Amino acid sequence: SKPATILDVGTGDGLFAIAFAQKTNVKTVLGIELASDFLVLAEKQVQNHEVKNVSFQKANFFDSALQPGFDCITFFLALCEFKKPKMVFERAFELLKPNGYLVLGEEFPELAQNKAQEIGYEINRALGYTHFLLKEVKEELENAGFELQIEKVFKTEYPPMKENDLKAFLKDEVSDWQTVGVINDSQQLFEQFQAKVRENGFEINPQIVGIVARKK
Question: At what angle do helices 115-127 and 163-178 cross, to 10 degrees?
Answer without folding.
Answer: 30
